[in-house]
Amino acid sequence: MNETTDLKQPYWLILINYWVQTRKRTGLTIPFIVGTYNLYLSKGNEDKETINSLLCNIVDSNIENPISVFNCDTIGEYVLTTYKMSGTEIKNKTTQKNTFVISLSAEILGKTIDDLVFKFEKMYNQSISENKYSKNNLSWTEFNEGDIKLIKEALGLDT
What mean pLDDT comes out for the span 48-52? Predict the structure, then answer.
């Protein structure tokens, strides 16, 4: 199995790219991305992804194109995508490069990463603490077989 150090890009970018470019979908929810790390890439209890660490890692990254957050009408949740969107741009403080966009549909939650973290923690921390990372039939559930297959394909993990 690949460790996080073996991945050539951040795991979240690999997942989002796979979902958007290969699967031709709009994006992935924050709990799905956090759950992927915690179940498949974490090195133990001290190494857990959180909503805060995920969003801060995205903003602090050196990615070419920004990640956008928007409200997905299909599932009624906020998702992260590689699609170019209009909205509030958040820049990496070191490089001054735009790495994150709060789309117009997500600006209701706030216009800073701190605002988003606060709102997303209220929305998703309970599901994450219960290992319910996937939205199926309007409910948060544990990963199903299809989710697990997608994660392993995207990250090149042993099946």
Answer: 94
HEC string of the chain equals: CCCHHHCCCCHHHHHHHHHHHHCCCCCEEHHHHHHHHHHHHCCCCCCCCCHHHHHHHHHCCCCCCCEEEEEECCCCEEEEECCCCCEEEEECCCCCCEEEEEECCCHHHCCCHHHHHHHHHHHHHHHHHCCCCEEECCEEECCCHHHHHHHHHHHCCCC
Please state, rounded to an integer, the average pLDDT across all residues of the chain.
92
* Residue written as token pair 């319910």: 132
Cα(72)–Cα(19) distance, integer angstroms: 14
Biggest CA-to-CA distance, the chain: 41
Residue with tokens 């921390």: 125
Q: Taking 70 as the threshold, does the pLDDT of residue 146 lie above it? A: yes
Give percent of the chain above pLDDT 70: 94
**How much is the pTM?**
0.92
Burial zone of 12 (CB within 10 Å; 0-12 exposed, 13-18 middle, 19+ buried): buried
